[in-house]
Amino acid sequence: MSDNFVDNKIFKELLQELYIIFLNIEDRTLHLDEFIHNLLLENDLDPKKVFETMTILNSQSNFDYSSLIGIFYQYGIGCDVDKDKSFEIFSNIIKNNILKEFSFNQKNGTITFNDDNIKELNEIITHYFYSLSFYKDIILNKGKNHKLYVRSSEKGDSLSQYYVGNHYYLEKDYKKAIEWFSKSSEGGNIRAIYKLGNCYYYGYGIIRDEKKAFELYLKSAKGGYNHALCSVGDCHYYGRGVLKDRNKAFKWYLKAAKKGYIYCQYLVAKWYNDGIHVPKNENHWLYWNRKVAISGDIHAQFELAEYYLNNPINKDEKKAFRWCYKLANKDEPKAIFMVAKCYREGIGIGKDLKEAKKWRIKYEAFVDSEDSLNTNA
């Protein structure tokens, strides 16, 4: 195979990360196109080359990247946007029964699969992406389906009972929300158990009881619900409903981080970097900060850029420049300053005084604007 081909492991990493996203789609807001671009940037990969390699590999009998190709067409990653082509790909996957049955546990939100089986990962991603793309009115706009959920909930469906309860929760009719969350909880719905814990924690429609809230959070967390994992960590950290224990807090934050909860990934990275509650560990910090950066957190992206710029062992000025350039185009002042410096001194990019002047002027305009705002405040 030509050296110009992309290493196959990047497709596995991408599929695994997307799997986590779709598994927890209710828990996070994420722009898939930005996420994929960030992952490719961090791996020094050209989107066009990735798309080209993927389509070639997909034609070989032992590779199947149909779902990724569909996503790339959907967002125009390494190719022109072609939503018709994307729809055709996902439709053919469904029509040809490419998707195999897999074990899905609704209570703890886990899927049983062989971690090394790329084809199976691809099939799981296809299932979620197809559902999200073409049934999004049902999946994401649940409020519009309130009557449907009421009918199903009255028949004892715990998932529908949760959505009815959540409808009242969002409407701040907490007494009715508690009624439906309680019914759904009896059926083992971990999201309902978590929301019922929130009602006790904040005193929504019921007398505030942090101990009861913790018990419910813990029950939901043991089922694998990300928000609950984080909340149990918070309870241990602050001593709410349970004795304060920073070590236990970290263990729960780490569990949530491993399941893709971005906020907890940020906390875990920070704890490893600070070395206050857990031993300082640069490698662990880099691992988690990298995930947060790829997910789109600007602060983590800039920290990653500074790391690649200044770390004596893993110094990578080209990658540092690319992250700064990305942030500079989002009008982040520190990044704009760094881009100007990189062009001026040839850091990670060829010296270009004309570009350096352009970015320096842009940075000075930001400084003047900030000074003006502070003066008028």
H/E element order:
HHHHHEEHHHHHHHHHHHHHHH
How many DSSP-defined strands?
2
Shape: globular
Integer average pLDDT: 83
Radius of gyration, whole Å: 24 Å
Tally the helices.
Answer: 20
- Regions with little confidence, pLDDT below 50 for 5+ residues: 98-116, 134-144
Beta-strand percent range: under 5%
* Helix residue percentage: 55-70%
Tell me the span between the first and last alpha carbons: 62 Å
- How is the main sheet built? 2 strands, antiparallel
Structural class: mainly alpha
Q: Reading side by side through the largest sheet, how are the strands ordered?
A: 1-2
Describe this entry's structure for a reader.
InterPro entries: Sel1-like (IPR006597), Sel1_AlgK (IPR050767), TPR-like_helical_dom_sf (IPR011990). This is Sel1-like repeat protein. It is a single chain. The protein has 377 residues and is an all-alpha fold. The chain has helices spanning 9-23, 32-42, 47-58, 66-75, 83-95, 118-134, 136-139, 146-154, 158-170, 174-186, 190-202, 210-222, 226-238, 246-258, 262-274, 282-294, 298-310, 317-328, 333-345, 353-376, and strands at 103-105, 110-112. Among the domains are: 8-140, no CATH class; 297-376, Alpha Horseshoe (Serine Threonine Protein Phosphatase 5, Tetratricopeptide repeat), CATH 1.25.40. Helices cover 68% and strands 2% of the residues. The protein has a two-stranded antiparallel ribbon with strand order 1-2. Strand 1 and strand 2 form a beta hairpin. The chain starts with 8 loop residues before the first helix and ends with a helix.
